[in-house]
From TrEMBL:
Name of the protein described by the UniProt record: Valine--tRNA ligase
Ranges for region Disordered: 431-459
Pfam families xref list: Anticodon_1, tRNA-synt_1
Major enzyme class: ligase
PROSITE patterns: AA_TRNA_LIGASE_I (PS00178), RUBREDOXIN_LIKE (PS50903)
Its job: Catalyzes the attachment of valine to tRNA(Val). As ValRS can inadvertently accommodate and process structurally similar amino acids such as threonine, to avoid such errors, it has a 'posttransfer' editing activity that hydrolyzes mischarged Thr-tRNA(Val) in a tRNA-dependent manner.
Native organism taxonomy: Archaea, Methanobacteriati, Methanobacteriota, Stenosarchaea group, Halobacteria
Keywords, ordered alphabetically: Aminoacyl-tRNA synthetase, ATP-binding, Cytoplasm, Ligase, Nucleotide-binding, Protein biosynthesis
Amino acid sequence: MTNIPDSYDPDRIESNWQDEWQDSDVYEFDPSDSDTQYVIDTPPPYPSGNLHLGHGLGWSYIDFSARFHRLQGDAVLFPQGWDCHGLPTEVKVEEVNDIHRTDVSNEEFRDLCVEWTNARIEEMKQTMRELGFSQDWSAEYRTMDPEYWGQTQESFVEMADDDMVYRDEHPVNWCPRCETAIADAEVENVDRSGTLYYVTFEGVGNDDIEIATTRPELLAACVGMAVDPDDERFADRVGDTFEVPLFGQEVELVADDDVDPEFGTGAVMICTFGDKQDVDWWAEYDFDLRPVFTEDGHLNENAGEFEGLSIDDAKDEIADALDDEGVLVDSEPTEQSVGACWRCDTPIEILSKEQWFVEVDQDLILEKADDVEWIPEHMHDRLVDWTESMEWDWVISRQRVFATPIPAWECRDCGYWHIASAAECPVDPNEESPAVGECPECGSGATPEESRGAGGEAAETNWRGETDVMDTWMDSSITPLHISGWPQDIDLDDFEPVDLRPQGHDIIRTWAFYTLLRTGALTDEKPWDDILVNGMVFGPDGNKMSKSRGNVVEPDEAIEEYSADAVRQALALGGRPGSDVQFQWKEVKSASRFLTKLWNIVKFAGGHFDEDTPDIADPAYRDADRWILSELTRVADEVEAEMEAYRFDAALRRLREFAWEDLADDYVELVKGRLYNGRPGERAAAEKTLYTAVTSVVRMLSVFSPHVTEEIWQHLPGTEGSVHNAAWPDPDYLDEDAEVAGRHIAETASEVRAWKSESGMPLNEDLDRVELYFEPGQNGKLDTYDLSETVNAPIKLVEGRPDVELVPVDVDGDESEIGPEFRSEAGAVLQGIEAADPAEIQAQIHSGDTVTVEAAGESYDLDADWLSVDEEYRAESGEEVTVLEASFGTILIYE
Ligand SMILES: [Zn+2]
Ligand SMILES: [Zn+2]
């Protein structure tokens, strides 16, 4: 007997096991544990403090894989990082402290960011814990820790050594609100309404021309004009010169295939810069550079009397001025798509800035991406499309504070840029001078001793530390290297792809892309073997979760209502990985019911176990045992294959089906008689079978519902340690004959029981006997022991079809017809019907519309429709019998 509590109490079980695991090494990665490893490149989330259900889905997938591979005997590394740096934290810290970042020193500001971030991480860890995720917390990392950002710097240094990092003046995407450069991946296209202005440019020694633009505020930056070379309207005008209204600079008309002749008048102005097309034309035709915007989104001195206006104000004022001048021909509303900052939605501008860039080697990225297994496969296309659309190198410098410092210094004398050596990292170039000492270019400056000795004050030397910092994707794009132990344990040359990268589809253009780029560039390897992309979680109403819709479900809310073990199952069953998942309370509820059922199966089975059960040797298995063990063998193989293919939904569905239908509804019902009344050897076989099935199900299910399975495991005899360190079940009982026999037994038992219950009979009512007739071709050999116990009847097996006959046993007359027809004689007619031979009446019904009945010496003719004949089955012996159809043939029940 096991001492499993009567009722399933998830609250107690879950918090208890979360505490236990916290203090144990169950999830610790120890490569010496196994010849095979399974290393997961877990996403380091941005520490917002809120681990939402979308995270819940992504991390559930990771946890399923981690737990499955532990059971498979792999040494599993499931680390957890935090992608701490970045603008959102700076904005939050400014908000909560009511300061601007320039109100305090950079150091102080960083400290506030670190403090805020640590608190948010604790909140998210709490939710991770409550969902039962199995990270190895000894492998936790935070990108804001010097140990980590030193590695980011080192990877920067390595790439600079290979000329894949450079500093250059180049147009970059710029957010005028955040006042920083941003990468292409941080630009989001938004649709908005604008105005299309038609403006006349006066010809210089030639005719005027009319152009159309949505951005009159860029007129001061106009450096050229362009038309389509095939546009008849401008056939003779290429090379003509025009004067830009209000600002007076002269510009020339060029012909270029990239002009859309359908837009506006067919002639467009080229400015430095309105968009990326302008940048291309500017480079191709060697136009002047006339920047007109400041970093904070105002017009500069090139705008003359409009200097100082914000970009939006300038648009209106310049349009008005054009109108006053009489050169604004027309204006009309238009819909346009503009690039906006991912963080603040402000339309981005393109400014030419000296920045740090990382080379984008499209071929290398595509080659590595091609080597990776993408799950689902079509996510690969998204990466390819994005990579092929990249026009510019990756601008990695940001004009912010809370980020990895760029380890570089500029010589104040000659402008030479010196990059730190790997050994100097981590280094803050504004706190320390470079080890190199004198400028390698011009020889000016301090010796290393002088520069580093005097408190490291950068100002005492000729070196000016770089104040720009790195894009946070520089931090997170080296996670596979970090978790593999670079640079302490391995060199870049030793790097081998890790096993799994799980991530959301919303960060394919960023995290997946940058990781492929960086790992490829640094190691010439692909970063991972497999990438598993998860979808989003929609609200119970099928819409994207949002506060304004009121359809947000928080993980803790769902856990409190049911249990973490049930929530995890609902997430697994939401769909195949990659698809978006609709959160459904009914799935959580049904998972919760399933877990209660599981508890009850174990409770029942455990009542028949003792400490000797695991060691029962050479059990005398019966067909029912052989059948469920063969099914179990199949299920273990199938679930394993589904798990390997990341089909968590299919794996769990199969497992639940087996546990609930085959094991609980069929097998347990079949062997109850044997367990309670069987002889010791017969009982032992059922006990051993149940033990094998239950311990296997519990281990497989531990992947999805780790708490309840751990609790059960501890109560089962013959188990040691945590279920999460056990081995994946490997039953070897395939027996096709037993499966056929077992299915026939289970089907018969369930048909007879259903019939008893429909007939209002107690389920344990004794029957005279039950006969099973097998159609030709059906295997009619089976072991009747358990079936007989289950249906409370002797069982007879017969090949062929039963010889049964449907015989008429009773005739009823319809009084509502016979009454009015025969009035005072109606009673006699009804008696006559009752007294007649049912077979003879049935014969008359079959031969015509009229039936003649004898009553009190008279003959009465009745309409055949007024009579109904009851029939019953009779066996050859004449005994009354119930006939049930079965998949293998016929079941006869004799009461
Ligand atoms: Zn912004
Ligand atoms: Zn110098």
